[in-house]
Amino acid sequence: MTNETDSFVNEVDESLRQDRAMGLMRKYGPYVAGVFVIFIVGLIGWQVWRDQTVASARRHADAFAAAQALVEAGNVDGAKAEFERLSNEGPRSYRTLARMEHAGILAQQGDLEGALAGFDSAAESAPDQIMRESAQIRAAYIAADTQDFAALRTRLQPLIDSDTRVSYLAKELLAVEAWEAGETQLARDTLEQLTLAFEAPDSLRQRAQIALSVLGPAPATPETPADGASAPAPSEGETK
After folding, report:
1. CB-CB contact of 108 with 142 (8 Å)
2. Span 29-45, pLDDT tens digits
3. Interacting residues of 60 by C-beta distance below 8 A, sequence separation 6+
4. Is residue 153 a contact partner of residue 175, using CB atoms and an 8 Å limit?
5. 102-111 exposure pattern, b = at least 16 Cβ within 10 A, e = fewer
6. What is the spatial distance between Cα 144 and Cα 173, in angstroms, rounded to a whole number?
7. TM segments (predicted)?
8. Contact 176, 149 (CB under 8 A)
9. Could you tell me which residues come within 8 angstroms of residue 183 by beta carbon, excluding any fewer than 6 positions away?
10. Which residues touch 178 (CB under 8 Å, ≥6 apart)?
11. Nearest Cα to Cα of residue 171 among 183, 148, 185, 189
12. pTM of the full predicted structure?
């Protein structure tokens, strides 16, 4: 009798559990199914986006290489047109590279203002610090020929403050342009910093040492007596 009672109780418990489960499914099932569908759709969408992104990157890589081949073949105008097109479409990194290549061609053709604007645009659109500073230093070299020293120094300061190797190129350009602008002490101080920058490229440090030797040491400043102090009295031999 006890076994039959236990069996009956177990059947009732199982039936209650099934009813409870069915009730929960009826109540929350649509929401669970909706979340699952959203997850699947999102997963498929991410997969499609990734495939399209990879395919787009490959297409633009091929187009970029083709434009570079035009330069090597001597078709500079064709390359310039292609780089200009690529600078406005595709992945951000390739847009930035295309803008720098287009600006470089403009500089070679003598359009320094257009080249400067192109490198500035590339720096603004750069996806990382390396590409941004590469565009900025190339813009600075052009600005050295098109802008005054104060404007150039403003351009160079963020690069000088950087912790990358581009900072050494920026300091070298600052020293050269300071020298030409008559800021010899600034040029001398900057060159001395470069000669002591052991992490800088050896060739750059050597150029700094050569420039420093040509510039020469700072002129000695005569000592002037303090206000109210009398000059030393001449010796006996000097009074005769």
Report:
1. no
2. 454 434 333 443 443 44
3. 86, 89, 90, 91, 94
4. no
5. bbbbbbeeee
6. 8
7. 28-49
8. no
9. 149
10. 149, 153, 184, 186, 187, 190
11. 189
12. 0.69
> Distance between CA atoms of 232 and 224, rounded to whole angstroms?
12
Two structure tokens written together for 105 = 């061609």
Using the structure block, give the residue that is written with the tokens 């010796």: 235
Q: For residues 193 and 172, what is the distance between their CA atoms, to the nearest angstrom? A: 10
pLDDT, the chain, mean: 79
Residue 145, token pair as written in the block: 């020929």
- As a residue count, the chain comes to 240
Structure tokens at 202: 């050896």
The pLDDT tens digits of the residues spanning 162-199 come to 989 999 999 999 999 999 999 999 999 999 999 999 99
